[in-house]
Specification:
α7 packs across α10. A two-stranded antiparallel sheet has the order 1-2. The protein is an all-alpha fold and 525 residues long. It is built from 20 helices and two strands.
Length: 525
Amino acid sequence: MNYSDLFRVTLPETMLEVAALVVLIVDLGFLRKAALKVRVAVAALLGVAGCGAALWALQASGGTGYRFDDVLILAQCGYIGAAQAGILILTALTLLLLIDSDFTKHVGEFVAVVLMAASGGLLVAAAQDLLVIFIGLELLSLSLYIMTAFAKTSGKSAEAALKYYLFGGMSAAFLLFGFSYIYGLTGSTDISEIKYTVFWQGSAPLLYVAWVLVVAGLGFKVAAVPFHLWAPDTYEGAPAPAVAFIASVSKVASFALLLTICSRISTIQLFEGSWNMDRWELFSRLHQYDGVWTGMAGVLLAVAALSMLVGNLAALAQSSVRRLLAYSAIAHAGYILLGVGIAQHLSGKPGDVEALVSSWKYVLASQHAVLYYVLTYGLTTIGAFGVVSVVERATGSDRLDSFLGLHKRNPLLAAVLLVLFLSLAGIPPLVGFWAKFNLFAAVLGVSAGPVPFALVALAVAMSAVSLYYYLQVLKRAYVMPASDETPIKAHPVTMAVLLAIAAAVVVLGCFPALLQGWIESFYGR
């Protein structure tokens, strides 16, 4: 083992770990007697600096992908690099929103745990081996459990953390059990080796059982139905910065992992070592192999359909904005899983090279669309929970009626809420519209059959349903009279961050090629 190579490939994670230690040293060693606001501001800014250093390390490695013992990849190309950069940017935004928080006196420890969780997310996104994937997921998950329970004076926070931990432990068992089956069937934990084994030896019934267990484990991470039961209570009880992190950074890391598993197994580029065999035999094997993963994609598509239905319909009955956003997150997970599931399909008859290559282009488009969606959703949901946290601190509640007359109590905050919720609903020209449009177009481009068309039709219908419950919040903010017209004040840094997020949502919606070009730039490296 070359430890210099290991250090090189984990340099961004190392930067975050060093930043976490610096935060603890400064907060506990030098600022123990300082005012809480000073400690929060210093810890948050040091955490943001750590994210900046990790982002620099990610970008400064020369622009070429680098693998370490086939278990980790230094992600300078493809969706992995974009996902890791997105994780760091979203973590920095979450830490900036922490500046106005007072839910804990242990701010140094909280920021350190956030940075640990972000390093776990980076590991999950870069991992190419089942064991490293599990280690990264556990580092991320354990940090999230701690963050959820950090409001020690809140009974809801403790309850949410306990439920999150219990469901998380169960999902980890399912995931590890599925991984053990895959290892037993293929004799390897490397994703590429697993692909080659399935390609040459074919599938076994136990492989489908293993895949169902893996989907159950990862479905918990992204809050997909029927593995979503932890989400509403966790979103309602956890501190707002923790919820913002769970709803954004955790989802980016988890969907990057799903893309890694699906794309690494189905990509035609990994078949290049077989082009010297008979062409008809090669394409017969390719289509047999594609049939295996098309069948497995059916599990993802079923979960996606259930998530879209349950998430949107359950959100209609919510009186808590936090729980409403939780069920909205479940619905959005369904939309994204639709793109992940359909991206496993390759079409074309045996021997038809042109059709196969053409379908692969659509698979890449679907991959881009998934990443575009999850990044923009993460950005928007951080802003949404930032607005909710400000209103909650002023009114003591996150109920719908707490937003009555918000446009009079704080016009800027109401404007941010308007932009973010309309974007989540997919209203043009905001970025949420283009995220859904690109995803649905990519799904239909991969396959024009009745199943993709029906799923996209369901997604469009559920998007229309989502507009209703988002408008319920906006109606109270802009139309219904306020019972209390006392102004709601927000910290200048919090307000600046929320306005920047809202402006980014508008600008990226008016110029969608900006983010698309940034994502594609990682593929060109």
